[in-house]
Amino acid sequence: MGDLKRLARCLGPYRRDLFLGAFLILVETVFELIIPVLMADLIDVGVAQRDVPYMLSKGVQMGLCALLALVTGLLYAQFAARAAYGWGAQVREAEYARVQDYSFANLDHFETASLVTRMTTDVTVLQNAINGGFRPMVRGPVMLVMGIGLSFWMDPELAMVFLVCAPVLAVILFFILRRVAPMYGRLQQMVDRLNNVVQEGLTAIRAVKAFVRGTYEEEKFQAVNTQLMETSRKTFRTAVLNLPAFQLTMYSAIVLILWFGGEKILAGRLEVGDLTGFLSYVLQVMNSLMLISNVFLMLTRSLASAHRVAEVLDEVPTLTSPADGITQIPDGSVDFENVSFQYKAGAQTSALSGVTLHIRAGETVGILGGTGSAKTTLVQLIPRLYDATVGTVRVGGRDVREYDLRALRDAVGIVLQKNVLFSGTVRENLLWGDPEATDEALWAACRTARADEFLERMPKGLDTDLGQGGVNVSGGQKQRLCIARTLLKHPKILIFDDSTSAVDTATEAQIRTALAALPDVTKIIIAQRVGSVMGADQIVVLEDGRVHAVGTHQELLAGDPIYQEIYASQKKGGDGDGQTA
């Protein structure tokens, strides 16, 4: 319940709609409970005495109560829908905003498919709990209390039946709920797994077709889909047991009341109209018990979804800006002082160990190393995508943890190893770098990144639609657009994480030449090709998360065996620049 209370804070302006809806339910219930009293008078007085005006009067009163109950019910539906879907929108916005505050370390705690499920399916479950469950949650207890009270007022002896039937139903429902509660949590986990398979299959659809693995993917989807089906079947097969339990209790109560009521009528101690009205209250009371049982089932599922949503909202971002963070970065110098890093606290091995590096502002630095040498991890510490576990990372002579996060990341332009473009036009993607950029500035960045070569051949130029994820351009074109987007930030530090791997060597050389014309920008280039970093002011060779060697191309070629091996392997069949043919 604590998770639901936590999420109730998201109601905001919709709290008023919820309270109005609750009030309308109370009014509707009162009108419905008056009808059996009027019915008893109509039968015992009007019918017994054949008083037609009296019967018409009671009939009109009953019709008026029914009409007012209908009107208040319709008004409730309007307020409840507004509260439910407004609340759902607020919860989704809160979740999405929280995810934007996450660091990479926080994102490692959740699978992407799970986050999607928590923002869609789980929130829908909560919405349905309000839209479909709030009415019975308020109406059920009111009808139960008032119905039993009026039943005792009409005939205390017959009302004793409730004291027997209600506990029986309560015990049955308790065992059902205790069994079904953990099932809802497992059900949502299965939805996570299904979404994960779907997302992975659609994202990698080109690879699936290229390797002719469509049948394998279908079988994988069928397996997880069948697991979800079986989990759902088992869960709801248990949940619906409340219906036969309710029916058994209700019909048993009706039989007992008719039995004892019939005896009292024969003995002259009860009127037929009173028994008819009493049976109406019996049905209302039993119906309220059914409503309450459904509310408990809905609440049980809502608690599972609320807990999953609350996990997203309660996740504390591992990286935050200091209270009085520095907003001005003096220059693009970067220093690593005995830096070590672990992706998880307490890990047996560190991704980085004892790294000490000094990069002056305006320098061009190349980083080489084998797969798994932590090249990407190293540069991700500069804009604080992660924080160093041990040691200090400085930018502009100050610890990166002293800077305002937004200011720091605005000063660091990073082209990640996995290039990402968004649905929309080239212009819309480039404006991520500078929302105020003019067409002249956009084309200037594209010329530096050599993206103008293919954009000028496109009929719509900057207004060319890229499709979802940039599917309408090649890998090399995508890389050049990502470089242009980063250049538009006018950063003090430019980081290229193997971001020209899909570009031909001639175009890469042109990009390097254009970047060299940015003298006040520190350039850090992670590359696989020696030719990409030969002209750098210094080259860093990483091995197993440690700095193996630092020097210029000539210094490393003369004295470092790892660099010599990399150079020799790429020079075979290549040109004198050390580039592969």
UniProtKB/TrEMBL annotation:
<feature type="transmembrane region" description="Helical">
    <location>
        <begin position="281"/>
        <end position="299"/>
    </location>
</feature>
<keyword id="KW-0472">Membrane</keyword>
<dbReference type="GO" id="GO:0016887">
    <property type="term" value="F:ATP hydrolysis activity"/>
</dbReference>
<feature type="transmembrane region" description="Helical">
    <location>
        <begin position="137"/>
        <end position="154"/>
    </location>
</feature>
<dbReference type="GO" id="GO:0005886">
    <property type="term" value="C:plasma membrane"/>
</dbReference>
<feature type="transmembrane region" description="Helical">
    <location>
        <begin position="20"/>
        <end position="39"/>
    </location>
</feature>
<dbReference type="InterPro" id="IPR003439">
    <property type="entry name" value="ABC_transporter-like_ATP-bd"/>
</dbReference>
<keyword id="KW-0812">Transmembrane</keyword>
<dbReference type="InterPro" id="IPR003593">
    <property type="entry name" value="AAA+_ATPase"/>
</dbReference>
<dbReference type="Pfam" id="PF00664">
    <property type="entry name" value="ABC_membrane"/>
</dbReference>
<protein>
    <submittedName>
        <fullName>ABC transporter ATP-binding protein/permease</fullName>
    </submittedName>
</protein>
<keyword id="KW-0813">Transport</keyword>
<feature type="transmembrane region" description="Helical">
    <location>
        <begin position="59"/>
        <end position="77"/>
    </location>
</feature>
<dbReference type="InterPro" id="IPR017871">
    <property type="entry name" value="ABC_transporter-like_CS"/>
</dbReference>
<feature type="transmembrane region" description="Helical">
    <location>
        <begin position="160"/>
        <end position="177"/>
    </location>
</feature>
<keyword id="KW-0067">ATP-binding</keyword>
<dbReference type="Pfam" id="PF00005">
    <property type="entry name" value="ABC_tran"/>
</dbReference>
<keyword id="KW-0547">Nucleotide-binding</keyword>
<keyword id="KW-1133">Transmembrane helix</keyword>
<dbReference type="GO" id="GO:0005524">
    <property type="term" value="F:ATP binding"/>
</dbReference>
<feature type="transmembrane region" description="Helical">
    <location>
        <begin position="239"/>
        <end position="261"/>
    </location>
</feature>
<feature type="domain" description="ABC transmembrane type-1">
    <location>
        <begin position="19"/>
        <end position="301"/>
    </location>
</feature>
<feature type="domain" description="ABC transporter">
    <location>
        <begin position="334"/>
        <end position="569"/>
    </location>
</feature>
<dbReference type="InterPro" id="IPR036640">
    <property type="entry name" value="ABC1_TM_sf"/>
</dbReference>
<dbReference type="InterPro" id="IPR027417">
    <property type="entry name" value="P-loop_NTPase"/>
</dbReference>
<dbReference type="InterPro" id="IPR039421">
    <property type="entry name" value="Type_1_exporter"/>
</dbReference>
<dbReference type="GO" id="GO:0015421">
    <property type="term" value="F:ABC-type oligopeptide transporter activity"/>
</dbReference>
<dbReference type="InterPro" id="IPR011527">
    <property type="entry name" value="ABC1_TM_dom"/>
</dbReference>
<keyword id="KW-1003">Cell membrane</keyword>
